[in-house]
Amino acid sequence: MAKNRQYRRKMHEKVDSMPSSFDGNFKQIFIVALVVAVVLVAFYFITVYILSHDTSTSDIINAKPAEADIQYQEILAGNSFSIDKDHYYVLYYDMSSDEAKSTYTNMITTYEDMGTQVPIYTVDMSSAFNKKYVSDTSNDSVDDLSDLKISGPTLIEFEDGDVVHYIEGQEAIQEKLNEG
């Protein structure tokens, strides 16, 4: 029985002397949580201070966006044969020249002021998207997009997706548009 008592006492001492991970870790967890909370509060106040003293961001936030200018007249050369109209014109020219742009814009405005019903679309041949259709020699017998080669100012009249007239040169284009 004495042995049994000694055994129990030994076991009791082992249980009492076992380290408790909860006591030490609780203090560490509390300190880490407190540090994290202090850092977050500090970032909050720094952010509020910066935003209240920075005027450049408020100018950006309060700026009115410019009104979008959507135009349907300028298209890509690749869309020339796929417009959903029965009858239309497509004018191909290099819009990088201000003089040429002004000349052809005036032609189009005059044409549209005549009250004609055939819409006219323009293609900027200086655009990188249209470069594959620019050539030294034009193809006036174009039947589809793969045959399209433009060498200068060109007006093509389409009817039901097919080329009806192929006109090159500023004077010839002017004459065609003046006919209405």
Describe this entry's structure for a reader:
- There is one protein chain.
- The chain is of the alpha/beta class.
- The protein has 2 domains: 2-62; 74-179, Glutaredoxin (3-Layer(aba) Sandwich).
- 46% of the residues lie in helices and 15% in strands.
- It is built from 5 helices and 5 strands; from the N terminus they run αααββαβββα.
- It has helices spanning 2-17, 21-53, 55-62, 98-113, 170-179; strands at residues 74-75, 87-93, 120-124, 154-159, 162-168.
- Strands 1-3-2-4-5 form a 5-stranded mixed beta sheet, with helices on one face.
- The longest helix has 33 residues, at 21-53.
- The model has no long low-confidence stretch (mean pLDDT 82).
Short description:
The protein is α/β, with parallel strands linked by helices and 180 residues long. It has helices at 2-17, 21-53, 55-62, 98-113, 170-179, and strands spanning 74-75, 87-93, 120-124, 154-159, 162-168. It contains five helices and five strands, in the order αααββαβββα.
Task: Provide keyphrases for this structure.
single chain; 180 residues; alpha/beta; Glutaredoxin; 2 domains; five-stranded mixed beta sheet; 46% helix
